[in-house]
């Protein structure tokens, strides 16, 4: 099976579009250097305007997508099931990184000399790409699991995954944990997760987790429904 599918090429195109827009943005920032006499001031200016974090966040959003594809390939080829389960766990661990980019809209504000609309579109391209990568990886995993498990079991797993994704976005954005902190600070993450789930109104920002989970769940259902309608039209 060709890993570079049509859909993957579209995602690559969106990623390149975002990176190109970011490079153009940087070129405008460097033009300001001529008017800044104090280098330390310009360095401080760059630190608040570069949006360099978008590249790293987009890279992390690609990780669950490629893991989902690799998981599908290994399942269909009958590879070692233990490694497949490990891959599924890693996929779930990195899945929150995909919709996480949506929360980067909080950085949107007017920054001279960049037009406000430019930063809006720049953030939208990165956020949309990250969200779609996450949704498509969910659909890939659901499709595979529904063939090797019962559909009910696959649905339950996807529901749990979506719920955990919302919690992961909350842990990352509000509490500033990273995916690999589950290894370095497991007890702290478990405690934060517990408080966010069972005491959302007493924990600042925890409501974000539930909103993100519901949003992702509804988008997932919408795309699944559209796929089913498309399949019915093809077989009709």
Provide a quick synopsis of the model.
77% of the residues lie in helices and 0% in strands.
Set out the fold topology.
Layout lengths: L5 H26 L7 H11 L3 H24 L4 H14 L2 H4 L15 H33 L2 H23 L7 H4 L1 H13 L8 H29 L1
Helix pairs in contact: 1-6, 3-4, 3-6, 6-7, 6-10, 7-10
Structure explained in plain terms:
The chain is mainly alpha-helical. The protein has one domain. The chain contains ten helices and no strands. It has helices spanning 6-31, 39-49, 53-76, 81-94, 97-100, 116-148, 151-173, 181-184, 186-198, 207-235. The longest helix has 33 residues, at 116-148. The chain starts with 5 loop residues before the first helix and ends with a helix. The model has no long low-confidence stretch (mean pLDDT 86).
Spans of at least 5 consecutive residues whose pLDDT stays below 50 are none
| Range of strand content | under 5%
For the secondary structure, the number of strands is 0
Average predicted confidence as pLDDT: 86
- How much helical structure, as a percent, in the residues? over 70%
From the alpha carbons, calculate the radius of gyration and give it in angstroms.
Answer: 20 Å
Number of structurally distinct domains: 1
User: H/E order of the elements?
Assistant: HHHHHHHHHH
The major β-sheet equals: none
Backbone structural class: mainly alpha
Helix tally? 10
- Tell me the span between the first and last alpha carbons: 26 Å
Overall 3D geometry?
globular
